[in-house]
Predict the 3D structure of the following.
Amino acid sequence: MAIHKYEENGKHLYRVHVKDRNAFGKQVNRKRKGISSEARAKRVELELKMELLKLKDLPAVLRWDEWVDECIRRMTLEFRNSTIMGYRRNLDKWVLPHFKNKLLDQIRKGDVHAVIFQGITGVSDETRRSILKQVKRIFNMAVEEGLINSNPAVGVKVKVAEKKKLCLNHEEVKILLHNAFNKSHPYYEIWAVAVMTGMRSGELNALLWSDIDFENNYISVNKSWSSKNGIGPTKSSLTRSISISSSLKKLLTEIKLKCTGTHVLPRPNSCIQGDQAKIIREFCNGLGITKIGFHDLRATFITQMLIKDVPLAKVMKIVGHANIKTTMKYLRMIAKDVEGATEALGIELPDYIEENNVVSLF
């Protein structure tokens, strides 16, 4: 059992590692990282020790509903409240009616398949895959604790067609921002900062003046805000930096001159209520440009960066993608990775035929 101090992105953080043996004699590990202070790390260490002690009191066999309750309780130490609510809602509605009285070691792959593809109705494939992912995690936790030997959900797959992402082209960005500015739209500054930084909605809502370094021209993205969770870490739980362009610096300077609070951007009621997507979509529709949602401003930023030949790895770092495959999806949107490839065919068409030698097909 130990608490280790380490440095990440210029910040001192703590990592906690606790291990013990469960009721079956199997060694079980618990780890947490990214803890902001030593005092908090000690509290986390105590919580993890208590969690491992409870493992020794678990019965040899648990029912599905008993184990889900235990997993949800543990998840509260690690996940956001909105994530916990999502697990509870989906598992109670779609899975519990089928597995409630079943013992964990009695549930087979066929049972999981039947629930996912027959028990769940009237939802999109994306939702179906999300529920399967949650079921797999619950069983995975049981495997880790030695309650079952294997995960019966492994091998069950839900195929989902890749959702088409929308974004604005360079000319559409100009049309959006110029019209929003001229009409004094309450979202103008929010849209402008979003399309010039690629920041997520929650990150923009949490952005403070203390996060902006005008002298060195960068923004520190280190937190996010949502109506369900309040202030919390970014999606990846990591801090990242975004360089400030000359245009963005001019805008931020203008905002600061008239701003009296600690938050950089205005927070309209519609923003708090989550209506940003509807508002920008209606505005774009009125302008006759691509009807994007709010998050598509982030896609616009990424695609424009890639079009300008900013290296893929650098774009990934700026926008905070944990996996380069995520960034690659945006590369496919603009076909930058296959640009000019067909020129290698070397196929040439015959020269244009003079009009008096043309044979009519009609």
Observations:
- The domain at 59-161 is CATH 1.10.150.130 (DNA polymerase; domain 1).
- The chain has a mean pLDDT of 88.
- The chain has 14 helices and eight strands.
